[in-house]
Amino acid sequence: MSTELGTAGEMEPREVVHFATQQTRFALINNILQHPDQLPSMHELEELNPSVSEATVYKHIQKLIDTGIVKEVALDDDERRQGYPWKFYGLTDEGREFLDDRNLLAAEETLQEIYKTISNKSEKMVKYENAPRPDDA
Question: Which InterPro entries match (predicted)?
Answer without folding.
Answer: FUR, WH-like_DNA-bd_sf, WH_DNA-bd_sf
